[in-house]
Amino acid sequence: MDRAGELLFDPLLPWVAVAALAVLSALFVGFALWRGLRGWWLRGLAAAALLIAIANPSYQQEDRAPLSDIVLMVVDESASQRIAGRPEQTERAAQAIRDAVARLPNTELREVTVRTAGDNAGTLAASALAELMAEEPRARIAGAVMVSDGQVHDVERMPDLPAPLHVLLTGEDNDWDRRLVVRNAPAFAILDEEVLLTVRVEDQGAVPDAVSGQAELTIAVDGGDPMPFAVPVGQDIELPVTLPHGGMNVIQFQVAASEGELTDRNNEAVVQINGVRDRLRVLLVSGEPHAGERTWRNLLKSDSSVDLVHFTILRPPEKQDGVPVTELSLIAFPTRELFLEKIDEFDLIIFDRYKRRGILPMIYLDNVRQYVERGGAVLVAAGPDFASADSLYRSPLSEIIPATPSARVLERPFLPELTEAGLKHPVTQGLPELGPAPDEGEEGPGWGRWFRLIDTDPKSGHTVMAGDTERPLLVLDRVGEGRVALMASDHAWLWWRGYEGGGPQLELLRRLAHWMMKEPELEEEALTATAEGGEVTVTRRTMGDPPGPVEVEGPGGETFALDLTEERPGRFIGTFETEETGLFRLAEGEMTAIVGVGPSAPREYEQTIASGDALDEAVAARRGGIQRIEEGLPSIREVREGRIAAGRGWIGITPREAYLTADVTVTPLVAPLLFLLAAMALTLGAWLREGRR
After folding, report:
1. Where are the alpha helices (DSSP H) in 402-467?
2. Residue pLDDT, tens place only, 657-676
3. What does the pLDDT look like over 607-639, one tens digit per residue?
4. What angle (nearest 5°) sits at the alpha carbon of residue 346, between those of residues 344 and 352?
5. Collapsed DSSP state (helix, strand, coil) of residue 460
């Protein structure tokens, strides 16, 4: 415990009044001296006694408990600090500071470790220093040390330190790195149209002369085989890309690693572009007018992205007047152009209650079959004619239609239901939840009944809906590169009209169209993944047996198995969390997928060369220094406040000499009444002395 004393004043009058009295007293004493009065010095003593009494001095003694000085240290362990030999440098420097502070008398160390912040915020070392400083009394802070590569992303939040700030810089003078930058990449793009991506390969740091001015760039789409290109370094490169399919397309760019560069983690970028169709071109062929024809047309025309070509055969089949078929239409309909020359321009062809009448020759229908095998899509909405001798099935289309008509038409009420396959298939999965709820106490979907079903025997594909004692109602199949759907009833329009509550016809048609367009989200067998922050959700859809674990390969090459749980029939879900950013590869059986976690270009790897440039101003303002660890670890000295606190091989801290007051004793030095009497006596003595001649 230390004792310290000091003189205190507690004036009876304001200090302004005391100063005025002192000036007046000095004038009176000076005047007395000028007049030659023999008692001038007694007058001066009287004035001094009066002023001392008014000032009311006292002596204060304090019992003080000295407090230790505090040194703050921020240790940067962000992603950019985990490359090359920086982890070892960081730990060595941090331990040296701990040991040096421990040797200083009456000095303590407070430290905090900084890691990569979320949301691609980078290294928030200044914020960490501000929080550490806020926990300690400002009067005790003697200095701050930051062990980092200098790539700090919140310098503007540097606190106002009352002591020097120093930076011990990791890295080497000869470090260099090559990085890939994606300057322009849209979030959406139209299928079958080129979109320009702008990329750039940059070199940073002390680039060796032996490194060529060109780099090898590879591009892979959805984890496919990479395509190599030789590109110049330091120039923007525009790459035209045509998306292969709708939905999310994952495009991976990668630059071959060069010998000696710091890291290859920034040699890769992942761009995710959602492919959308500009227009959906649909050809609707109606065999005859009926109640459901307008429903099909209204459904298709309600979507502004659908270009509809519709023709209807208006002449009833029972009318026999000898008029040639080619002369029945008011205008010549371009059947040859549609079914031979431009058929591949359509995304979907719908045959609505169509039957053979000689209007479409067999060669046209055979071309439709070939169109499907090449990747087209056909939907057959069957009516009673499908069971007749003029059935569309009695044509080349029989090779692709997935069910054979039995020539029976069942006209009685039935409730459409999902089959076991329909509960799993993405086209019909969850449809009951989109329709009216069933009545209380009843099971099954709550939608309305239909009244006609064409009896068929399925021969391929998946029967996803059934009716009237499990007879096929909706059958989906893949043929060659294309897809075919058969709706074995022409009463779907009852749902559209809201009969008995209606049903989800609009959603069913939308899903059918998107499945036929091969949209990834409606594939029966699919492995997909989505990332939100550091959480990755893996989805496996299948029509078969439950899948096994998914093998996940991280950006660094490490692998692990992820178990899936059944969320609903045919849909299995698994999640995992990761702090890594980059491309994750997934595999389950023959199914593969990739997902990008985090930003395409993490902020931590934008600048990997260690540099104190970002911290120069903040360090200079606090009279500190920036020193490279590779040049040797500095010693710590004590310097006086306001002096330069860094030099070659040393850094300084400012002792604060803070203390805690344990006890205070105040002793008055004067008795005001006694000094007032003394002043009066001195004044009387001066008068008496001056009165003697």
Report:
1. 420-424, 431-434
2. 776 666 677 778 777 777 77
3. 899 999 999 999 999 899 999 999 999 999 999
4. 120
5. coil
Nearest to 231 by CA among 239, 241, 223: 239
Is residue 254 within 8 A of residue 216, CB to CB? The reply is no
Rg of the chain (C-alpha set) = 45
Q: From CA 84, how far away is CA 92, in angstroms rounded?
A: 15
Which residue matches tokens 């000898």? 322
344 contacts: CB under 8 Å, gap ≥ 6: 371, 374, 376
pLDDT at 600: 65
Residue type, 106: N
Q: Find tokens 């939907």 and name the residue.
A: 379
What residue ranges in 138-278 does DSSP mark as E strands? 141-148, 165-169, 176-184, 188-190, 195-205, 214-221, 227-232, 236-241, 247-255, 268-276
Measured at the CA of 188, the angle between CA 183 and CA 191, to 5 degrees, comes to 115
Looking at the DSSP assignment, which residues form a beta bridge with residue 6? 60
Confidence band for 324, pLDDT divided at 50, 70 and 90: low
94 to each of 4, 87, 111, 126, 637, how far by Cα in Å? 38, 11, 9, 17, 17
- Reported residue count of the chain is 693
Q: Is 90 exceeded by the pLDDT of residue 421? A: yes
Report the b/e string of 521-530 with b at 16+ CB within 10 A: ebebebbbbe
Any idea what the Cα angle at residue 666 is, between residues 665 and 671, rounded to 5°?
Answer: 150
Amino acid, res. 446: G
**Cβ 54 vs Cβ 18: under 8 Å:** yes
Residues forming a β-bridge with 590: none
CB 81 within 8 A of CB 116: no
pLDDT at 147 over 80: yes
Q: What is the pLDDT of residue 662?
A: 62
Output the six-digit token pair for 372. Answer: 């499907």
Which among 196, 348, 345 has a CA at the least distance from the CA of 273?
A: 196
pLDDT per residue over 326-385, tens digit each? 555 445 567 788 888 888 889 899 998 888 876 788 898 999 999 999 999 999 999 898
Rounded CA-CA distance 17/629 in Å is 62
Residue 398: per-residue pLDDT = 92
Which residues have CB under 8 Å from 12's CB, separation 6+? 53, 54, 56, 672
Q: Phi-psi bin for 535: left (phi > 0), alpha (psi -120 to 50), beta? A: beta
> Which residue bears the tokens 């939608």?
447
Q: Alpha carbon of 614 to those of 132, 531, 688: distances in Å?
A: 21, 32, 80
CB 241 within 8 A of CB 275: no
Are the CB atoms for 380 and 484 separated by under 8 Å? yes
512 in Cβ contact with 573 (< 8 Å):
no
Mean pLDDT of 315-321: 52
Contact 416, 377 (CB under 8 A): no
Looking at per-residue confidence, does 692 or 603 come out higher? 603
Confidence category of residue 691, pLDDT binned at 50, 70, 90: low
Sign of CA dihedral 579, 585, 587, 592: positive
